[in-house]
Design brief:
- This protein has about 230 residues and is of the alpha/beta class.
- It folds into 2 domains: about 10-20 and about 105-230, HAD superfamily/HAD-like (Rossmann fold, 3-Layer(aba) Sandwich); about 20-105, Orthogonal Bundle (DNA polymerase, domain 1).
- About 45% of the residues lie in helices and about 10% in strands.
- The chain contains 9 helices and 6 strands, in the order E-H-H-H-H-H-E-H-E-H-H-E-H-E-E.
- It has helices at about 20-35, 40-60, 65-80, 85-100, 110-120, 135-140, 155-160, 165-175, 190-200, and strands spanning about 10, 125-130, 150-155, 180-185, 200-205, 220.
- It has a 6-stranded parallel β-sheet with strand order 3-2-1-4-5-6, sandwiched between helices.
- Strand 2 (about 125-130), helix 6 and strand 3 (about 150-155) form a beta-alpha-beta unit.
- Helix 2 packs antiparallel against helix 3 (about 65-80).
- The longest helix is centred in the N-terminal third of the chain and has 20 residues, at about 40-60.
- The protein is elongated, with a radius of gyration of 19 Å.
- The chain binds magnesium ion.
């Protein structure tokens, strides 16, 4: 139950509204079919990809692996486990994966009903997302939720990323918001929740995996529908 009626809500996109993990899995399964790799166990392939991808992302974040290499290597290593040793196919698959990701449409549970409920109540909403503009705008359009937002702030376009208060400030200004009546909704504790704390607005931690959290957000919930309970 929310403590008050918020008139302005800032939403994160990936894993808050747009179901990144389901979309990644669907995308990979479709590509495996497209490449005629129908004998591969898709569940197992995705599980292995996810594991390898996480490991390589860590190396990328430490500066040990360039971005271009990450894009193909994560598929090269996964294919290798399934007996396919072909860097060219892996590179092509990696590029196609990136191109078709924004076309995926799965949303987090109840995202659509919550956005439309808030819109009906006259809440002004903005997207505040760390990502690339050519990808994030396409996602918003393709999954049918762009219509709900009065402003969209993408880090690449703005030249500043969450948790910087600058991005929160710009988003709120763009929707004519007042800090006291504003709420940030997101799944990433550092970028979304701590960012909103520093900026000085209330925070709704969309803790969909229900991980223990003692950082003290205003709200800690695994159900977006709680946003309609005031
Ligand atoms: Mg997120």
């Amino acid at each position: 139950m929310l403590k008050k009626e918020y008139k302005f809500i800032l939403f994160d996109l990936d894993r808050t509204l747009w179901d990144f993990d389901t979309n990644a899995k669907n995308n990979i399964c479709t590509l495996l079919d497209k490449y005629g790799l129908t004998n591969i166990d898709k569940e197992l392939f995705y599980t292995r990809y996810d594991y390898i991808n996480h490991k390589l992302w860590t190396a990328y974040e430490k500066g040990e692996l360039p971005k271009e290499k990450l894009r193909s290597e994560r598929f090269y290593r996964t294919f290798l486990e399934f007996g396919i040793d072909n860097p060219e196919i892996a590179a092509e698959f990696g590029e196609e994966y990136l191109n078709s990701m924004p076309l995926q449409k799965a949303l987090m549970p109840h995202a659509l009903e919550v956005l439309s409920g808030l819109k009906e109540r006259g809440v002004r909403m903005a997207i505040i997302s760390n990502g690339f503009k050519e990808v994030q705008y396409k996602k918003l359009e393709n999954c049918g939720i762009a219509i709900f937002f009065d402003a969209v702030m993408i880090s690449e376009e703005q030249g500043v990323h969450k948790p910087s208060p600058i991005l929160f400030k710009r988003a709120l200004k763009a929707i004519g918001g007042d800090k006291k009546l504003s709420l940030m909704v997101g799944d990433d504790f550092t970028n979304d929740i701590e960012g909103a704390m520093i900026f000085g607005i209330d925070q709704f931690f969309y803790n969909y995996k229900s991980v223990p959290c003692d950082g003290g957000p205003t709200y800690d919930s695994n159900d977006l529908r709680d946003l309609l309970t005031f």
